[in-house]
Write a structure and sequence with these properties.
Number of helices: 13
Helix content: 25-40%
Number of strands: 12
Strand content: 5-15%
Distance between the termini: 65 Å
Largest sheet: 7 strands, mixed
Bound molecules: pyridoxal-5'-phosphate
Shape: globular
Order of helices and strands: HHEHEHEHEHEEEHHHEHEHEEHEH
Structural class: alpha/beta
């Protein structure tokens, strides 16, 4: 990415007043001199200067041409899907974010768009699964929540050769670590709710395109459908982006320390973190990103919902909540939370085990976070023993 100096100074000061902070244009409309004669703005669904500033910042961060800001990450994804027509097919990564799965399957399939879920960690699988009707390849890398890594450059080559678009959901890496458009992708989407906003205080989505023409089509879809980001939330995302490189650096170093701790823990079965040399496609993550991100997932030896529930209710600093990418550490149990809309068999087949816990590692001290996890493991053990004993006693009294 641009270095921190370039990033901070790409955020403009207001030419009208000199305001150092980007002004929030809280308006629905703009006075015109004559019909159609205006200062570039006519109605705030179509455009807003605060939103436009965010859009140009994200376009430059992702090395694209057009940025478009939406009211949520899912609204951004939805606008990309509206490029398709009935009969088109999507080839999507199998370990996809649950909300995207719900949108693809329960909304778009009924409009005649077929979705084929594939393990994209091997490019051969993608090559074999593309059909004549595939118009869009959809990747998350790293994925949510098993941090699967797919080779963006290799899959972009398949997409080009087979005449389809490649869209990468870059939410987990953020442009501070990975810029898919420079690796051959056509579209990048973000849940800016996460690292770009960075403070767990807003919901927002972004799309960036490599080519202007494609960006204009999505901008047209946005204006036609109306899923815009409000001026104040646009401003909050801009403020978050100012500290993105600094935050991401600390998220990455904390997550690496936690992943290494978990790897040695006797209660842990598997640890998923692209920064671990044993992680599948670690070498690709190293090649295509400048860091491994702030999300770590793991499964328990006791692979049950009961054990995972006990664990996620015992931490002190890791707060139990949906979402990720903020200053404060969060944890969640995908099987009962973010991924509950995916049928259990499909979820397990994609590697999201019943006991899988996802950590969004925040900016606290790594040692405190590790201590918090350690005490939660101990409490979980006691809770499971107590529950088992209670069940035995209840059985004796039946
Ligand atoms: C990878 C990914 N993409 C998209 C989304 C959807 O974003 P939003 O919640 O902002 O609509 C999420 C939300 O968790 C996500 O994790």
């Amino acid at each position: 990415m641009n270095n921190s100096t370039a990033l901070i100074h790409s955020i403009p000061t207001d030419p009208l007043t000199g305001s150092l902070s980007v002004p929030i244009y809280q308006t629905s409309t703009y006075v015109q001199e004559a019909p159609g004669v205006n200062k570039g703005y006519d109605y705030a669904r179509s455009n807003n200067p605060t939103r436009a500033t965010l859009e140009s910042i994200i376009a430059s961060l992702e090395k694209g041409t057009v940025g478009i800001a939406f009211g949520s990450g899912l609204a951004a994804i939805d606008a990309v899907l509206k490029l398709l027509s009935a009969g088109d097919e999507i080839l999507a990564v199998d370990d996809i974010y649950g909300g995207a799965f719900r949108l693809f399957t329960h909304v778009y399939e009924k409009f005649g768009i077929k979705v084929n879920y594939v393990n994209t960690t091997n490019v051969e699988n993608v090559f074999d699964a593309v059909t004549a009707n595939t118009k869009l390849i959809w990747l998350e890398t790293p994925t949510n929540p098993t941090l699967k890594i797919s080779d963006i450059r290799a899959i972009a080559q398949v997409a080009k050769a087979r005449g389809c678009m490649l869209c990468v959901d870059n939410t987990f890496a953020s442009p501070a670590l990975q810029q898919p458009l420079t690796l051959g992708a056509d579209i990048v989407v973000h849940s800016a709710t996460k690292y770009l906003g960075g403070h767990s205080d807003l919901i927002a989505g972004l799309v960036v395109t490599k080519e202007k023409e494609l960006g204009e089509k999505i901008k047209f879809i946005q204006n036609a459908s109306g899923g815009i980001l409000a001026p104040f939330d646009s401003w909050l995302v801009i403020r978050g982006i100012e500290t993105l490189p600094l935050r991401i650096e600390k998220h990455c170093s904390n997550a690496q320390a936690i992943a290494e701790f978990l790897e040695t823990h006797p209660e842990v079965e598997n640890v998923y973190y692209p920064g671990l040399p044993g992680h599948y496609n670690h070498h690709i993550a190293k090649r295509q990103a400048s860091g491994f991100g702030g999300i770590v997932s793991f499964t328990l030896k006791n692979d049950t919902t009961e054990a995972a529930t006990a664990f996620v209710t015992q931490t002190k600093y890791f707060k139990l909540a949906e979402s990720l990418g903020g200053v404060k550490s969060l944890l969640c149990h995908p099987a009962q939370m973010t991924h509950k809309s995916i049928p259990a068999e499909r979820r397990r087949a994609a590697g999201v085990a019943d006991s899988l816990v996802r950590l969004s590692v925040g900016l606290e001290d790594a040692a405190d976070l590790i201590e918090d996890l350690q005490q939660a493991f101990e409490k979980t053990k006691s809770i499971i023993i107590e529950n088992t004993e209670a069940r035995l006693v209840a059985g004796l009294h039946q």
